[in-house]
Fold:
Amino acid sequence: MRRVEHVMGFPVSLRIDDEGFPQAAVDELFTWLREVDARFSPFKPDSEVSRLDRGELSDPSEDLTEVLDLCAHYRAATGGAFDVRLPGRGLDPCAVVKGWSVQRGAELLTAAGARRFCLNAGGDVVVSGGPWRVGVRHPEHADQLCTVLELTDAAVATSARYERGDHILDGRTGRPATGLLSLTVVAPTLTEADSTATAAFAMGAEGVEWAAGLKGCEVFAVDAERRVLRTLGFPVADDAAATGRGRGAIMAS
Structure:
């Protein structure tokens, strides 16, 4: 089964290899993502996020509370580099909402019986079963890949400057984060992978080491000097050098 829809401002594609998987469960996934867009988009004036930001809500929903708790966690963990409440800007938790909501969608599929699937949300991917081969776009050449991964029961997310320019700000300075060209994180869930990738990118070059030290995370980054940095356990396809383990160890080239 294959399906593609444009949700939350980007294409979401789903491939399920399990025969006879119920269409209703796929419908539920995309209904959930559309609900998330309506409730949590800071660009919709009637969303829960917008109403909370304007002071119209005193008791956010359980889901929004979970998202805000995650935002607070990453703000504290990065010393304020990751911040969804920047001065002069409204509340914008999108950096957490995307991975969190797509991971929740993947869990809906699993609960419905899916065992082998790939869910791709604007280039951030969560897979079940495997191995799946996932390409990471070159940060400067749209028609090239800088690496290919092999993933099984995992998630991968990339933060970069190539799609939306210098849109990720360092909350400590309020200025664009420019120390990296791209940073990719592999983690057990897309909630972790996506949030960590954005938070680490906001930190700049120091974010590579920070992300590499997190339990379950493997990192691949290209810094502003075009150096490639990656952890020893980053699951590069057909690359014997990537088979070593040792969380936190960084290889540079």
The two ends are 40 Å apart (CA to CA). The first helix runs from residue 23 to 40.
